[in-house]
Amino acid sequence: MKLLQVKSVEEVVKIITDSFQEINRVQELKMEDSLFKVLAEDVYSPEILPPFSRSSVDGYAVNATDTYGAGESLPAFLQLVGEIKMGENAEKINRSETRYIPTGGMLPKGADAVVMIEYTEKLGNQVMIYKQVGPGENVILAGDDVKEGELILKKGTVLKEAELGALAALGINNVTVYEKPVVGILSTGNELVSNTEKELKNGQIRDINSITLASIAKKYGAKVLLGGIASDDFDEILNKASNLLDKVDVLLLSGGSSVGTLDFTSQVVKKLTGGNLLVEGISVKPGKPTIFAKKDNKAVWGLPGHPVSAMMIFNYFGEILLNILSGSRELKFKKICKALLTRNIPSSAGRTDWIRVRLTKDTNNYQATPVFGKSGLITTLIETQGYIEIPPQKEGLEKGTWVDVILWG
Amino acid sequence: MKLLQVKSVEEVVKIITDSFQEINRVQELKMEDSLFKVLAEDVYSPEILPPFSRSSVDGYAVNATDTYGAGESLPAFLQLVGEIKMGENAEKINRSETRYIPTGGMLPKGADAVVMIEYTEKLGNQVMIYKQVGPGENVILAGDDVKEGELILKKGTVLKEAELGALAALGINNVTVYEKPVVGILSTGNELVSNTEKELKNGQIRDINSITLASIAKKYGAKVLLGGIASDDFDEILNKASNLLDKVDVLLLSGGSSVGTLDFTSQVVKKLTGGNLLVEGISVKPGKPTIFAKKDNKAVWGLPGHPVSAMMIFNYFGEILLNILSGSRELKFKKICKALLTRNIPSSAGRTDWIRVRLTKDTNNYQATPVFGKSGLITTLIETQGYIEIPPQKEGLEKGTWVDVILWG
Predict the structure, then answer these.
(1) Of A379, A371, A308, nearest to A341 (Cα)?
(2) Whole-number Å distance between alpha carbons of A209 and B296
(3) Chain B interface, mutation test: which of A258, A366, A381, most B Cβ atoms within 10 Å?
(4) B168/A195 touch (CB, cutoff 8 Å), yes or no
(5) Contact between A169 and B105 using a beta-carbon 8 Å cutoff
(6) Which of A195, A309, B331, B344 lies at a CB distance of 3.0 to 4.6 Å from A206, suitable for a disulfide?
(7) What is the signed CA dihedral for B264, B265, B266, B268, rounded to 10 degrees?
(8) A102–B163: do the CB atoms touch at under 8 Å?
(9) What ipTM goes with this model?
(10) DSSP assignment of B329-392
């Protein structure tokens, strides 16, 4: 694989954003099973909310006119004709009459406001009102929150606690959501054996990328289909990759880093996508020898074999891609911790550097210490909480600088 | 309920942190089913990693001594005796011999370094070496990454992609993790009917808190047990709450906001916990009338009935509590977006204010616009992406200030 047209991280993001759209498979789910799913249609309210005018305080339901002029020294006297019970229909009041009403209680006909109990005094069958109220005061009117037929949730909304609460309030029991994108994973390499293998032969190592890439895909809300391991054989890789691609939205091939295996991956990806390669190499460290191609609305990645490189590439770009495929139209943010850099970090201009760091905390601040290590070494990764991005226009960072640490999860 | 000893947000956090510990139920899981679970024991490596010395480049395996003095003008000549294949045992080399080795290939006996292919030239059965290498150069030695018996993952670690990758590399197929904490939810109020109810009678509203609180619990990795709805009847609430508390680690009661129902909740919580109330009122808006109590290592919350108040309280304090119960010992961070405030926000000193905001973006910056609304109105919440916290010592925020918006998810 010749990395002649290496693209910047920014360019790759733009390519992903411009080239893909949400998957077109939708499903109807019960509202309570749809947490974190993405709405595939606009949702309109079938009714008004609240369904009846309610009191927002504990107090007395009144006709506001009956309280005009009332004050500390000159209370209004109203006839107490009963109590409104929660969950029950409120019987009407006439002029100069009142009923006790609890917070959330239904406002009776004839009343248009509520006087807070703090400004009243009960004397037998009479209630003294020490403060005047205007129409609508301390009342949430029927339909104040939502009108019938009103658009309440837009297509592309991720259903979180508040959205599900709104659907519950309106009695909407079913929603149409996008299915989760499916990510297929195929590890390649003659040296690889399954991670469940207890005894290794000389020259063999266990497959790491299947579980790490699957975990990242699940973190970003995708389903996973594991394709196992393929030997360094063009036909075998192509065959297994092609079968997997039929069933998934995103195919991840991760291969060795030797020249021969890189070429295999590149050729297979070309063959699979009819030569529709969008990216051949990214100016980022780690992860430069990454291939990205497209077939219909399906994405095919040729990821480096190094576990750390493959993880970082898919962690970064996979989030953006899966977000688009999922149908979400929401702003996305990363979890970040501001920290003080504990040592200098050298970096080459013209390339994005992702530097893994260990976070520690003293009384006031977080400190970020870069953890360098050959990218094949998994322990350098499990000791870190996140990474720092050094953009292409910068040459390194100095000790004592405040940095944004992008957290793993 | 008298809120005489209202506590600050900070005090409540400290009470939670000091009063609870991780749940003591553990389970053994397959490694691949343990994503985001928390390790309940230290994990030691059963073997070394990498299991054999490997090349980190494509090149020729050599005895470093044979390359001493080699340079552009004076190459060393080595006898090519074959090729090392990925995944296969490497046959030994003698002095002055070499074998081609791909990245990740096993270093043969007799070799202690690898010369990158860029610095070599093959001529029939001979390889010319144009650069000397030192012992260990371009080699990852067996055990360089992990020693046998080494502590690799500590109790309390959340298993994410990297940790699972490390377990895969070492052939560790099973892990002992904490079970998820279980959250029980009981909504109370005569006015409440199930959210699946199609037709409402006058005075009735659908239960919102069950789904919103369940969603938050799931977001923070807990299991949920729904207790349904109880009427405003002391014995009924106590009975249902008591049954639920037997089966859960965290019990959430959410009641109406009228004086009567608040008293019910308070009495029930007292009865359930033998009077062990830790918090009776929090100086925060929204959410002041919150009760928090403890029985053994179980937490009982009396949450306000207002959906928004209940959500915000459990979103904030529930994350901290569930994190402790889950056994996680990792640093936790919130997702934050820096944004410019588009208008003044008034706020009372001496109280924490949580102001919900809508985020928008222009070319360069995010803007945060406060969305005010009576806290019973669900639509004011679904239009927001997060909230701003105004601490007790501040009186409001001015338009144009940079604020940290804490995002919902």
Answers:
(1) A371
(2) 43
(3) A258
(4) yes
(5) no
(6) A195
(7) 80
(8) no
(9) 0.95
(10) -S-----EEEEEE-S-B---TTSEEEEEEEEEE-SS-EEEEE----TT-THHHHT-SEEEEE-T
H or E element that contains B2: none
Q: Are residues A283 and A238 in the same domain?
A: yes
First to last CA, chain A: 33
Q: Per-residue pLDDT for A391 more than 60?
A: yes
Regarding whether B247 and B209 lie in a shared domain, the answer is yes
Tokens of B138: 């371009």
Residue with tokens 């595939």: A40
Average of per-residue pLDDT across B265-276: 94
CA B142 – CA B270 distance, rounded (Å): 61
Instruction: Give the length of chain B.
Output: 409
Report if residue A378 sits inside a domain. Answer: yes
Q: What pLDDT, in 10s, does the model give residues B15-40?
A: 999 999 999 999 999 999 999 999 99
CB of A60 within 8 A of CB of A98? yes
Contact B90 A333 (CB under 8 A): no
CATH code of residue B173: 3.90.105.10
pTM for the full model? 0.95
State the Cα–Cα distance between residues A390 and A377, nearest whole angstrom.
21
Whether B384 is covered by a domain: the verdict is yes
The torsion angles phi and psi of B99, rounded to 5 degrees, stand at: -135, 145
Q: CA A290, CA A262: separation in Å to the nearest integer?
A: 9
Would the pLDDT of B231 be above 60?
A: yes
- CA-wise closest residue to A60 among A23, A96, A6: A96
Q: Does residue B120 belong to any structural domain of this protein? A: yes
Q: Which residue has the tokens 């969008």?
A: A278
B362 interfaces chain A, CB cutoff of 8 Å: no
Q: Residue A343 is part of a domain; what is its CATH number?
A: 2.40.340.10
Nearest by CB to A104, from B140, B168, B258: name it. Answer: B258
**Contact criterion met (CB below 8 Å) for B358 and B369:** yes
Pair (B155, B206) in one structural domain = no
User: How many domains in chain A?
Assistant: 4
CATH number at residue B81: 2.170.190.11
Domain boundary among the residues B260, B294, B326 is at B326
For B312, the domain range is 9-24+180-326
User: B105 and A258: CB-CB below 8 Å?
Assistant: yes
Instruction: Indicate the Cα dihedral angle B68, B70, B71, B73, nearest 10°.
Output: 140
Closest residue, chain A, to B215 (C-alpha): A161
The reply to whether A76 and A194 lie within a common domain is no
Question: Strand A298-303 and strand A250-254: pairing?
Answer: parallel
State the Cα–Cα distance between residues B266 and B278, nearest whole angstrom: 12
Q: What is the mean pLDDT of residues B177-182?
A: 98
State the Cα–Cα distance between residues B22 and A241, nearest whole angstrom: 44
Q: What is the pLDDT of residues B371-397, one digit of tens each?
A: 986 655 777 778 899 999 999 999 899
Burial of residue A68, with CB atoms counted within 10 A of its CB: 0-12 exposed, 13-18 middle, 19 or more buried: exposed
Query: How many Å is the maximal CA-CA distance in chain A?
Result: 98
Domain match, B203 and B319 both? yes
Question: What is the phi/psi pair of residue B215, to 5°?
Answer: -65, -40
Assigned domain for B31 exists: no
Q: Are residues B132 and B172 in the same domain?
A: no
Compute the distance between CA of residue A216 and CA of residue A310 in angstroms, rounded to an integer. 11
Which residue among B140, B157, B188 closes a domain? Answer: B140
pLDDT at B266 over 90: no
